[in-house]
Amino acid sequence: QGKQKKARKYAVMKRMISLRDERLKEKDRLKAPVKKKEDPSAIKEREVPQHPSCLFFQYNTQLGPPYHILVDTNFINFSIKAKLDLVQSMMDCLYAKCIPCITDCVMGEIEKLGQKYRVALRIAKDPRFERLPCMHKGTYADDCLVQRVTQHKCYIVATVDKELKRRIRKIPGVPIMYISRHR
């Protein structure tokens, strides 16, 4: 004794009358859109993002050892929590010489964090890190990194921030390095 199967009732849904139905009055009918003639002398506009020539097919040809790695604030903090030597773990990951680069914005962000993050500040001031000057206004590090990576495709971005990773994935030819499971 199971549940009886009910047959679907016919025409349960209200049917829509087509706008071209002859039962409609003339004023309610759909009028065919009038096509505009294109001017051959007019400039055709189309938004097509130009990919740089360094992206031969889909691979970035500017990227090669020694790798320049743009480091984000939270990447330094997570490496401290995971007890990783930053430069050594980068070299272990890529099997090549790595030059960690830190921008003025990231440096300013670490300095703003205060006394609690003094270890991160000491790591950022390491002589092995290359310091990149910023010429823009504002000190928002994420915008700075995205702008720099868009202009020059020779960097790998090291970050743990999900929002920044999402933004960088939209830029073709830019690899992302991150820390997961203490590696």
TrEMBL record:
<dbReference type="InterPro" id="IPR002716">
    <property type="entry name" value="PIN_dom"/>
</dbReference>
<comment type="subunit">
    <text>Part of the small subunit (SSU) processome, composed of more than 70 proteins and the RNA chaperone small nucleolar RNA (snoRNA) U3.</text>
</comment>
<keyword id="KW-0539">Nucleus</keyword>
<comment type="similarity">
    <text>Belongs to the UTP23/FCF1 family. FCF1 subfamily.</text>
</comment>
<dbReference type="GO" id="GO:0032040">
    <property type="term" value="C:small-subunit processome"/>
</dbReference>
<dbReference type="GO" id="GO:0042274">
    <property type="term" value="P:ribosomal small subunit biogenesis"/>
</dbReference>
<dbReference type="InterPro" id="IPR029060">
    <property type="entry name" value="PIN-like_dom_sf"/>
</dbReference>
<comment type="function">
    <text>Part of the small subunit (SSU) processome, first precursor of the small eukaryotic ribosomal subunit. During the assembly of the SSU processome in the nucleolus, many ribosome biogenesis factors, an RNA chaperone and ribosomal proteins associate with the nascent pre-rRNA and work in concert to generate RNA folding, modifications, rearrangements and cleavage as well as targeted degradation of pre-ribosomal RNA by the RNA exosome.</text>
</comment>
<keyword id="KW-0690">Ribosome biogenesis</keyword>
<dbReference type="Pfam" id="PF04900">
    <property type="entry name" value="Fcf1"/>
</dbReference>
<feature type="domain" description="PIN">
    <location>
        <begin position="67"/>
        <end position="166"/>
    </location>
</feature>
<protein>
    <recommendedName>
        <fullName>rRNA-processing protein FCF1 homolog</fullName>
    </recommendedName>
</protein>
<dbReference type="InterPro" id="IPR006984">
    <property type="entry name" value="Fcf1/UTP23"/>
</dbReference>
<dbReference type="GO" id="GO:0006364">
    <property type="term" value="P:rRNA processing"/>
</dbReference>
<dbReference type="InterPro" id="IPR037503">
    <property type="entry name" value="Fcf1_PIN"/>
</dbReference>
<keyword id="KW-0698">rRNA processing</keyword>
